Amino acid sequence: MSETSSKQNLKTSARQLATVIDLNKCMGCQSCTVACKNLWTQRPGTEHMRWANVGTYPGRGYPRDWQSKGGGYDKDGNAKAGELINLVEAGDNFQFNHDEVFNQQKGQSAHLQPTTSKGEKPQWGYNWDEDQTSGDWPNAFFFYLPRKCNHCSNAPCIDACSRNAIAKREDGVVLIDQEKCTGHRHCVEACPYGMVYYNLSTGRSEKCIECFPRVEQSIAPACNRQCVGRTRAYGYLDDKDSQVHKLVYDWQVALPLHPEYGTQPNVYYVPPMSTFAYDDEGRLTDEMRIPMEVLEEYFGSAVNGALKTLVTERQKKKDGKSSELMDILISRRWEDRFAQFTNEPV
Known about the structure:
single chain; Alpha-Beta Plaits; two-stranded antiparallel ribbon
């Protein structure tokens, strides 16, 4: 069997699980981040890892500057060179002087101060630039962008792994076999989304496992289930009754992030409908504050049609008419969001 066909087998699955996230409802509360970290990244060597994270965009994001690190494929399907992510760019492992502040009775003379894993003053950290806006006053803008591993259908981490330690399961979840991984970190370089991390303690690569022990019990992944804003839908893409299928295929308002990377990601986003902009005289216009070119940079040209559909369906709802799309996005019953993955985690 050729190397190409062997890799293709590793990227093949019978079905594909997917997540849809409505960016019009995300408020940057980090509940998804905390839910994931409490479950999966409290082990030695994972302190800097945030398999689920939320950043303020446009911005440097997390890991820092991930959009300029390369990886993925070019328009001809050829692998693009990528860069390793260092500990600082992944948020470091800050230490705090808790004992000095809370136990040494120093009153107001001691203040909580973080230091890096090397004992130095931090120069950057997770969400260092949270809520920093783009645009000019009075038309400043930003939106929150939750991210996790996309469990790509054309996963570059699988192609890059020199030990064939990374493969898709039959449900489309991409996993790293920790017994096969030897820590070469080619997968870290290959992922254009910066969603593969290196464990300094084990010498192996790690990433989101899509909470597969929960999924096998028909429980949605923790990041999706714990979202307080009901921003997320979860299910199989081929399940025509699922909200995932309806938003991606029927309504075509859920779009992949950076489709030009060529990875066929399986986390989709309902793009943000920004507030209206002011003109030079301070009068409200009917133009969006977020420039269309910004949204096209993230979601491709398909974002234009998606936003037109959202505007049309929202107006129908305002006019007292029915709209299946708006009913899906409003999400009055959380169970409707997760197809068959609604069992309790306890």
